[in-house]
Design goal:
The chain has about 200 residues and is α+β, with helices and mostly antiparallel strands. It contains 5 helices and 10 strands. It has a single domain, classed as PPM-type phosphatase domain (Phosphatase 2c, domain 1, 4-Layer Sandwich), CATH 3.60.40.10. α1 packs across α2 and α4 crosses α5.
């Protein structure tokens, strides 16, 4: 299986964007973060540290270990959620800390993968990441979304938005953000789209 990923982020109007995302096309690995704090937020620090860990390890991540390393790295600064995914052969591994979400869109139907991730955040010093493994199929789409974006969607509306825009994959994250913004923007919003192809 091959993975193609695109992401987009939109700040709350008049505020610095406290979300961040990271795409490592070599691993392949994608993560989105929803931080608390100022423009030099925990989300951006976590994304940079995850990039360092990917460069140092050079292999598929052990998500439990990676989440705990990021948690330790952020101790003493502001906190951030994380939802991340990596593909190894035909298995997608998803890791969630906090209320950012991962979705699977298969055959035009969206389902939530990380609803029970809880309220913990990286930087708390005691994270217990939710880890899920999904047998990926050809043409599956995985969505990683911060709460500024996902709270605007029912599963039906999310499915409809993806189906309507899925042929233009590079623009799909932006299309999801535009649909989310139709009900007003009161938080930073970040969406990553991961496409699995045989």
């Amino acid at each position: 299986m091959n993975l193609t990923a695109y992401a987009a982020s939109s700040p709350q109007p008049g505020h610095p964007n406290e979300d961040a995302f990271f795409i490592d096309r070599l691993s392949p690995l994608v993560a989105v973060f929803d931080g608390q704090g100022n423009a030099e937020s925990a989300a951006k620090k976590a994304a940079r540290q995850l990039e360092r860990l990917c460069r140092e390890n050079g292999s598929k991540p052990d998500w439990t270990k990676t989440a705990k390393l990021l948690d330790s790295y952020l101790l003493g600064v502001n906190k951030t959620t994380m939802v991340a995914a990596s593909l190894a052969e035909d298995t997608m591994s998803v890791c969630a800390v906090g209320d950012s979400r991962a979705y699977l869109v298969r055959d035009g139907q969206a389902s939530i993968l990380t609803e029970d991730a809880g309220k913990q955040k990286l930087g708390s010093g005691a994270v217990q990441p939710l880890i899920k493994q999904v047998n990926a199929k050809d043409r599956d789409l995985f969505l990683l979304m911060t709460d500024g974006a996902w709270t605007r969607f029912s599963l039906y509306l999310l499915s409809r938005t993806v189906v309507k825009n899925h042929l233009n994959l590079p623009e799909l994250p932006r299309a999801i953000l535009e649909q989310a913004a139709k009900s007003g923007v009161c938080d930073d919003m970040t969406v990553a789209v991961l496409s699995v192809r045989r």
